Amino acid sequence: MMTGTDESFAAFVAARSGRLVAHAELLCGHPEQARDIVQTVLTRAYPRWHRIEHDDPYGYLLRAVTNAVTDWWRRAHRRHEEPSSPTLPERGAPDPIGAFENRQVLRDLLSRLTTRERTVVVLRYLDDRPEREVADLLGISVGAVKSTCHKALRKLRVAAEPEKEGAHADR
After folding, report:
1. Mean pLDDT for the stretch of residues 98-115
2. Which of 1, 2, 22, 148 would you label with 139, given CA atoms 20 to 30 Å apart?
3. What pTM does this model have?
4. Which domains does the chain have, with CATH numbers?
5. What's the count of helices (H) and strands (E) in the chain, helices before strands?
6. Dist CA 96 CA 21 (whole Å)
7. Tens digit of pLDDT for each residue in 23-33?
């Protein structure tokens, strides 16, 4: 029999885990790693759910996922590791961000950025975080956030140009 905390946690996971996975995937660029990170974060949050659920559980877990991706990125960067498999054999719950028409285009464009550039762009523009918060999360200066954003956005504009031309040519 489920307790109130169990039911509340299960309802939250059912409603929001897909969005947390999508957020993690945009940050790290690897769908399988994103699911692992979210699963780990949710597993760690469950014992404290009675405290978390009364404030802003989504905000709390979104930040926890962001921190976990940042930790993964730092560890992988130090060891020069990449996930071994580009796909998982099974699919999880439907991804609510999948409703965006150009999700694949966004993922393709983000994949052209370095891990640091992608992380900064996702946190800054897709997560709508201020420069200071992004800098604090990543342990870098505000100037580094600004210059990384500038370089990454320039790369994205250049990479997106063929996409626009191809779309007009089809008409």
Report:
1. 75
2. 22
3. 0.57
4. 1-98 (no CATH), 100-171 (1.10.10.10)
5. 8, 0
6. 10
7. 998 888 888 88
